[in-house]
Amino acid sequence: MRNACSVTPQSLRERKKLRTRREIRDAAYRLFAEQGFEATRIDRIAAEANVSTSTFFRYFPTKEDLVLSEDTPARPLSVELAARPVDEPVLTAVRHAIHACVVSAEREPGALERARQRMELIASVPSVRDRLPEAMARPGEDLAESLAARIGRPVDSLETRVLVGAVLGAFREALLHWAGVEPEADARALTDRTIDTLARHLSA
């Protein structure tokens, strides 16, 4: 089986675009930490990243988009979940798929720190938090397809939607907890605690 959340080979142009996106985002996060989200101007972010303002807007329409968009060239969690054995219980499959994604992120310098900063901003900036449902819509639909196939139910069935809501809601709260309460916590251990909580209390 292919390594979960493994990186898809990219062209030189794609790698350059990804590098520019990350440089802009890293510059923005540094400035957000120093000045605050609202006080940080887009032209200041562009200057910090050594790009033009027009280049910033080619990659990110707004500061909120900068925070909420993803740029890791990895297979989505939904795809990794679909790659797990078909006879594996749902929560076990979710646990292993997320573990593999964490391992992949740990290999990339700064990836987990960027994820933590992202969640801090989602938790603390109303204009970012208000757009979180929009940002989660596509990943949620993809996850619904994977879960529906696993449980043998239609994507729009109540059973599938409840599972999607439980998984996404649980991990949204786990990530917010990680960013705001336990930033030093091991991401895999936090995943286990989240899955264990779902399994223990929802099956009681």
From TrEMBL:
Pfam families from the UniProt entry: TetR_C_14, TetR_N
Domain HTH tetR-type, chain residue ranges per copy: 18-78
Alphabetized UniProt keyword annotations: DNA-binding, Transcription, Transcription regulation
Residues annotated to bind DNA: 41-60
SUPFAM superfamilies: Homeodomain-like
Gene Ontology MF term list: DNA-binding transcription factor activity; transcription cis-regulatory region binding
PANTHER family, sorted: HTH-TYPE TRANSCRIPTIONAL REGULATOR BETI, HTH-TYPE TRANSCRIPTIONAL REGULATOR RUTR
Name the record gives this protein: Transcriptional regulator, TetR family
Organism: Streptomyces zhaozhouensis
